[in-house]
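JOB MANIFEST
job_type = single_chain_structure
chain_count = 1
residues = 348
[input]
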Amino acid sequence: MEALDNKCPACGAKIEFNPKNQKWDCEYCGSKFTLEEMKKYDNASSDKANDNKSQEKKLSNLDIYTCKNCGAEIMADDTTTATFCVYCGSTTILKDKIMDGIAPSKIIPFKNVKDDAVKAFKNLSKGRILMPKLFNNQKNIEKIVGVYIPFWAYDLKASGTIDFNVIDTTMWSDYDYRYTKTDTYLCKRDSSMEFDRILVDGSSRFDDDLMDSIEPYNFKDLVDYNHAYLSGFLAEKYDIDSNTAIKRANERAMNTAIDKTKATVNHKSVMVGNNNLNITKLSDYYILLPVWMVNVKYMDKNYTFAMNGQTGEIVGNIPLSIMKTVIISIILFVITTIILFFILRGVL
C-alpha cells in the first residue's frame, strides 16, 4: 500500500482540509480543491477494499503516535505531527507506521476550525473568578487539537411486551372521616420501535458521559470515509470492538424504549414490572466523528474539554482554585468581621 501524502496537485506541497469551505487549501500556492478534484489527481482515496458489503475495510499506511506515559495511540497522515499527547499532555511521543487496520466506513468532516474551539474554551471560563490561572494559560489554549474520535453506530430494534404495575389513589372525606381508595392493577403494553445510529465511542480513554454530552451529531453530513479528511487532524484508534460496545447501545435503546412505552400509560403512579423486550441489531457502522479537545492537568488530575467539531457544543468541568478560594474566603471573613465590629460598636 502507498503512504498517504495528501499533496497539492498544483505545487506538490502538503495540503490540509479546511472545515470552513469543506475544501483542501494549499497555503503555499493558494489553490483550493474539492474531494472529487483530489481524487482526480490520485491524492485522495477511500481504499479499494472500502465497500459497504464488508466491515473489514483496510487502511493505507498512516503515521501512528504512541504516548509512553498513558499508552494512547493517535493516527495521522504525514501532513500532521503530534508533539504532545492529547490525553495526558505528555511530550514523550514516539512515531511509527501502522501498515494496515480496519478503516471506518463513514466520517463526518470537521465544520469548525481551531479558532472556533479556542473562542468556545475561553467563553467557558468567563466569569469564573475561582478558576485556576492554569486554564487561561496560552500554552494550554494552544494545545487544543482536532481529533476524529472512533464511534460505533448501531441500528437497533426493540420489540416485545412490558408489564406495568399501576396504582390509582382516590381520596375524599366527610364530616367524620377521611377515606382513601387504592386501586392496583396490571397494564400490559406491546412495544416495537427502531433506533437509527445509536452512538457508542470506541475509545476507552474517553469518558462515556463526556462523549454523550456533545451529542447529537447531524448525520446529514455523514460521508464515505476518505483518508484525505484526516489531513491537518489527528484520529484516534478504536480499542473497544463492536461486540463490546453494543452492550452500551443495547442499554441506551432499552432505557429509551421503556420510557417511551411507559409514557403511554396515562397514570400518575406507574412502575415497570416484567420486561420482555428484546433488542435486535439490524446493522452497525464504524465511523469517525470530529471533536476539538484539550486536556489540562491540575493538582495531578486531568480535566478534559471537548467541543463537537460539527455543531460547536462544548463540555468540560472547571475546578476551583484552592489558593483563590482560600484568599477570597479570608477577605470575606475579614470584611464581615469589620462590618460586625462597627455594627456592634454602634449598638453599644
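[summary]
Residues 47-56 have pLDDT under 50 and may be disordered.
The longest strand covers residues 145-173.
exit_status = 0
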